[in-house]
Amino acid sequence: MLILFRKHLFWFSFIFIYLINTTTLAQPPPFFHHICVNSPTYTINSPYQRNLDTALSALPTTNSGFGYFNFNTGQLNDRVISFALCRGDLEPALCTNCVNDSIVKLRELCPNQIESIGYYNECFLKYSYETGNTNEVALPNLQNTSNVDRFNGALRELMDRLRGEAAAGGLLLKFATGNITGPDFSTIYGLVQCTPDLSEQVCSDCLEAAVNRIPNTNLYGKVGGRILQSTCNFRYEIYEFFNQTTQSISPPSRSIPQSPPG
C-alpha cells in the first residue's frame, strides 16, 4: 500500500510540475516598455470593449506584406483604431508571433484602458479611439560617450542618411539600417522606421523632429538609445542590434471584409 501511494504521489508531482512549466512557457514575454493611458477607461461589455475584441481578433490577419497591421472598427467615441508594426528586418513568422504576444500581453497589463501601447524589440502594438503621434518615449543606453561633439556629429550624419532612405521606401515599408564610424574607431549602428501609411515627407519630418529632440532628452551624451512614437521611431547603439538583410515581401493575408459599425 505504501509503495502504491508513493507511485501515485510521484506521478501527481510530475504532472503538476509539467503543467506549471507548460503554463509558464505559454505566457508572452514582458514588454521592455508599455503605456496604459489611465483616462478614459471602458466598462465590461460596453460597445468599446466589443469593438476592441473585434479589432484585436482581426488585426493579425491584416499584414500588409512587410509587417504593418491595421484594423479600425466602430464609430465616434466607441471607435477602435488598432495597429502594429514589426521591425523591418524581422522574418514573417517571428513578426506574427510578436504581434500575437503583444495582443495578449497588452490586454493583460491594461485591462480596461481605451488607449494602450506595448513595445517589444521586434514589434509594437497600439490601440486607441483617436489618431495621433502621442506617447513619445526616450530610452537611453546608460553608457556615456567619451567625445560628445564627435559622436553627435557622426550620429547626425547617419540619422540624416537613414531618414532619407526610410522615407523614400514606398507604400509597404519605410525602414532603413546602417552604420558609421564614430570617435575612437567605434562604430555607430542605426535603425529608423515609419509606419508605411505615412507620405515620404511626413515620415521624413517625423524622424527629423525625433532626432532633433536628442539634446533635450536623457539620450544626450549616451552611446545608444531610442525614441519611440506611434508613427516613427529610431534607435542607435555602438553594437549591431539588427539583421543585415531585410525580409522578402510575402503575400498579404486574406482580405478582411468591412467591419460593421460598433
Biggest sheet features: 5 strands, antiparallel
Into which percentage range does the β-strand content fall?
15-25%
Give the strand order, joined by hyphens, for the main sheet.
Answer: 1-4-5-3-2
Could you state the oligomeric state of the chains shown? single chain
Number of strands: 10
Helix content: 25-40%
Rg, nearest Å:
22 Å
Classified in CATH, the superfamily of the largest domain is Gnk2 domain, C-X8-C-X2-C motif
Measured distance between first and last alpha carbons: 63 Å
In CATH terms, what is the architecture of the largest domain? 2-Layer Sandwich
In the predicted model, the low-confidence regions spanning at least 5 consecutive residues are 4-25, 246-262
Q: Number of helical runs?
A: 5
CATH fold category name of the largest domain: Killer Toxin P4, Chain A
Q: In total, how many domains does the architecture comprise?
A: 2
Question: What does it look like?
Answer:
The chain has 262 residues and is of the alpha+beta class. Strand 2 (68-73) and strand 3 (80-86) form a beta hairpin. The chain is elongated. It has a five-stranded antiparallel β-sheet, covered by helices on one side. A five-stranded antiparallel β-sheet has the order 6-9-10-8-7, with helices on one face. 34% of the residues lie in helices and 22% in strands. The chain contains five helices and ten strands; from the N terminus they run αβαββαβββαββαββ. The model is unreliable at 4-25 and 246-262 (pLDDT under 50). It folds into two domains: 28-128, Killer Toxin P4, Chain A (2-Layer Sandwich), CATH 3.30.430.20; 137-237, Killer Toxin P4, Chain A, CATH 3.30.430. GO terms for molecular function: kinase activity. Residues 30-132, 133-241 form the Gnk2-homologous domain. Keywords: Kinase, Receptor, Repeat, Signal, Transferase. This is Gnk2-like domain-containing protein. It holds the Pfam family Stress-antifung.
